[in-house]
Amino acid sequence: MTTQKAIVSVVLICAALCIVYLFAAARPLGSEYQLEPEWNVMVSPQVSPPAAHDTLISYKLGQTIGYFTPDGKITSFTSFPFKAAISNTYYAPYTADSSSVTFYTTDGTATGQLSVAGFPYFADDRIYVFLPGGNAFSRCAADGTVLWTYRRAVPITAFASSAGGTIAGYADGSIHSFTADGTLDHTFSPGGSDYPVVLGAALSPSGTYLASISGRNRQRFVLAQKDGGQIKIIKHFFLPADDAQQKLVQFSADGKNVYYATTDEFGIVSVDGKQHETIPVPGQVLSVREIADGAFVLSKTQERYTVTFIESFGTFAGSFSFSAQTAFIQTAGNMLFVGRDTTISRISVNKR
To answer: Which of 59, 142, 183, 344 could form a disulfide with 179 if both were Cys (CB 3.0 to 4.6 A apart)?
Structure first.
């Protein structure tokens, strides 16, 4: 056997073993759903340039970022020594002392420069920079120029952006909401705790609803609606957890529900406040990705990751676990993509 053939054989065997391992700890789904592994690829500097029609999906594994296509083609591979920001539109490696940061589009083209010192953050095609000191941020245009800046004396402890605007939570327990053009439209404090720090916040795609988790010594979830110049509380309740970790709070893509997470628990609340379900998940929830029939939740306990599939509104449909140093999940259509250390796998979700 030639050396080249031997290498190909080893790679194929490793890929097959990775897929088998990924599902070795799976809890079976209900009879209506099947998760079907389709491919597993190694992430390496050997990349294939994207075609004009390719859909590109971002990944971040350890100290590497890049993009891949739904059919398993790795189109970019960028190592970074300090930190990096990436979305499905832009990416930027940066250092702790960067006075300016160049950012790139998915094909590697330098498209702009952030001329203010700080740490970039991309939310789809929206560009932000968190300024030194942790108490200010800027919204930037597509070329990197600053559109507007908001600064307070209090540290930012939670932040989110949607097509409807921007939301920031602070260490003093206040939440500040901005329209898409940067106008400060609402400020309020959820309250209800001895120590009111905001640990998670989200703004709906329309910019109409906002949600938060805040406080220590009685941690509290609040869902509210902008009602003219007022904030109308739709639903609030106290949570069983009371740690100081930042919390995931995220609206569904259609804006009808809001997801939230505490340690070992994942919750869903409808925006009208009439439905509320919780599902046990192991460890800290890292991300949520949706498909048409539900959502996948990635959580972590030490070096053990779990992917939980939630069908419709808060119905547990199954889960699987694996060990890794670093991991991610992404979705597209009815496909789930799972990144694990140096590999990415595609799994189709089919309803039978």
So the answer is: 183
